[in-house]
Design brief:
The chain is mainly alpha-helical. The protein is built from 11 helices and no strands.
Length: 247
Amino acid sequence: MKRSTISPAIASILVNAIYAMVNYPIVLISTLLAPFAFLIIITFVSQGTLLPIAIGGALIMTMIAAGTSLQGDLSHLKNDFKMQDMVVSSPTTARQYLIGMSLSEVVYSLPALAVLAILAAVYVHATLAGYIEIIIVMVLVFTFSVSLGFFLSTLTTDVIQSWAFSGIVSTVLSALPPVYYPITYIPLPFRYLAYLSPATYAAEIVQSLSGYGSFSQFTIALDWIVIIAVAVVMALIAIKRSKWRED
């Protein structure tokens, strides 16, 4: 990463993550509450049989929530503090700004990710290569969600509107799809609707790597193609199509 990119990244982490974590540590509860609430409920209902799958689902939900929450943070900085106006007038590019703010969301989610990583190491019995692939899946999910959050933030005009969009998008992408349980639990007439969310493809990969779910090689290959394509396309849209500087 070039020095010109590192400086905006550090500034974004300090402003959007470290400041809140140090001064308002209670906000960290929000990063833990939703994914762990679903994890606990699924574990209790399944009497522990779905715990490994639920851990993978919690990881996916955390990455999606971190990415989509960028929308509200960017809208807050843009509309309330006019910070984006200052950034736009500087040599900072949209790509540098997106990278910096994305890293700040990762830092903000580190407590939840750390706990989930420990649980995954204990309860998810994957190979070393499997763990690496799971990390790659999480990076792709985050890339998609943070790009979507960045793009939507450029279209909203009020932080309240952004928070509403963020909650809706996060729920639709991570709470409704079968990330905490196998897709076979969904009745067939409705099962195909789950594939409208990229999280479903990510969940199938993670469940397969964890040794749960009998997916064909074709299905897993298709899952990889879809999740990579969605992440790349959404990232390109965020960089190329987002309204950054006025013409």
